[in-house]
């Protein structure tokens, strides 16, 4: 499967140790791993089975959460059509830094669909005293960002599939909307119809290998 062309680029942002890589691994491979810290960025691909037997390839870019990598974030975000902004339910500071990552998207001039994700749901279910960010706070923040919102557990898989389904439905809706706009544009300006609107070009600016780093990273 090629890393050069994908139907949708998804970028995942958030503080270090919130569980970004474990979330991606659960989405792509359907399993829970306990990897090391991500350095730079890594990319994984996954097929989405859409309506009417359609199939799309989504590229998920995992980014480092350490501040020393912040300068690279705009390059990673460029061309993304969807962003997962992640915080930990047991880490208040990770929630406080959400605006920092939203600003990164804005600086990269990304027209994106945002999903806000609170991780480590299994830990707060086992011990409610560990929760540092309430459900209501997460919902309020998502409303402010006009984002979808999920509390998930990468360990148990709870609500993880809902994220993937939401992304897929968003992408198919965007294709329908884009098709309608193209039809209108073709009627009004038939010479302006683009030749190819099916794929986006993704250029890997990572300092690391383009090969997927399965189960070796942790945020």
TrEMBL record:
Signal peptide as annotated in the record: none
Top-level taxon of origin: Eukaryota
UniProt cross-references to Pfam families, sorted A to Z: Ras
One GO molecular-function entry: GTPase activity
SUPFAM superfamilies membership: P-loop containing nucleoside triphosphate hydrolases
The entry's keywords: Nucleotide-binding
Protein name from the UniProt record: Ras family-domain-containing protein
């Amino acid at each position: 499967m090629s890393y050069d062309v994908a139907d949708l680029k998804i970028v995942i942002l958030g503080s270090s140790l919130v569980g970004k890589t474990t979330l991606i691994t659960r989405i792509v491979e359907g399993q829970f791993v306990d990897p090391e810290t991500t350095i730079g960025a890594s990319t994984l691909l996954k097929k989405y089975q859409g309506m009417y037997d359609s199939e799309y390839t989504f590229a998920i870019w995992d980014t480092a959460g350490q501040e020393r990598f912040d300068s690279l974030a705009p390059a990673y975000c460029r061309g993304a059509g969807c962003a997962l902004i992640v915080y930990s339910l047991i880490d208040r500071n990770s929630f406080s830094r959400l605006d920092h990552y939203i600003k990164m998207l804005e600086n990269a001039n990304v027209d994106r669909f945002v999903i806000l994700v609170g991780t480590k749901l299994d830990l707060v279910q086992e011990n409610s005293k560990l929760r540092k960010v309430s459900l209501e706070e997460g919902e309020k923040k998502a409303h402010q960002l006009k984002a979808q919102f999920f509390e998930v557990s990468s360990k148990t898989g709870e609500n993880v599939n809902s994220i993937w389904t939401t992304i897929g439905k968003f992408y198919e809706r965007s294709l329908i909307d884009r098709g309608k706009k193209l039809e209108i544009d073709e009627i009004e300006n038939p010479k302006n119809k683009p030749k190819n609107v099916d794929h986006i070009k993704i250029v890997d600016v990572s300092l690391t290998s383009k090969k997927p780093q399965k189960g070796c990273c942790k945020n």
